[in-house]
Design a protein that fits this description.
Blueprint (H helix, E strand, L loop, with lengths): L1 E6 L2 E4 L4 E9 L4 E9 L6 E6 L5 E3 L7 E6 L4 E6 L8 E9 L3 H4 L4 E3 L3 E6 L1
Parallel strand pairs: 2-11
Antiparallel strand pairs: 1-3, 3-8, 4-5, 4-9, 5-6, 7-8, 9-10, 9-11
C-alpha cells in the first residue's frame, strides 16, 4: 500500500502564499497520477490540480494562474505552490495518488488519500 502525509497548511491573509507538501511512502512503484483535492464542510471534495506520471498537469479553473503542482519522483514528494490566496481557497487540502493499472498494484489498492491539511485564508 501507499501512505501519504501532507504538511504546510496554516492560517494566512488574502494575497499571501503557501506551499503544501505530500510525502509518499510504501509501494511507491505502484503510484501513477497524483493530485491535490480540497473540501469544505457541507460540500463535495473537489479537484484542485493533478499531475500524471509523465509530467502532464491539469488545474481547476479556480487554481489556474495561481497554483502550481509539481512532483519530485526522486524524493517521492508532491507539492502545491499556492500564490495570491483568496478566502474562498479556505479548505482542507488532501493529497491523492492513483494506482498503476496493473493487477499487482490493484491488489494493494487503487486509490490513496492523505489525512488532509487545513488552509485558512482570512480577508
Amino acid at each position: 500500500q501507499v501512505q501519504l502525509v501532507e504538511s504546510g497548511g496554516g492560517l494566512v491573509q488574502a494575497g499571501d502564499s503557501l506551499r503544501l507538501s505530500c510525502v509518499a511512502s510504501g509501494d511507491i512503484s505502484c503510484i501513477s497520477h497524483m493530485g491535490w483535492y480540497r473540501q469544505v464542510p457541507g460540500k463535495e471534495r473537489e479537484l484542485v490540480a493533478v499531475t500524471t506520471s509523465g509530467g502532464s498537469t491539469n488545474y481547476a479553473d479556480s487554481a489556474k494562474g495561481r497554483f502550481t503542482i509539481s512532483r519530485d519522483n526522486a524524493k517521492n514528494t508532491l507539492t502545491l505552490q499556492m500564490n495570491n490566496l483568496k478566502p474562498e481557497d479556505t479548505a482542507v487540502y488532501y493529497c491523492n495518488a492513483g494506482s498503476l493499472p496493473t493487477i499487482q498494484c490493484y491488489r494493494k489498492g487503487n486509490e490513496y488519500w492523505g489525512q488532509g491539511t487545513q488552509v485558512t485564508v482570512s480577508s
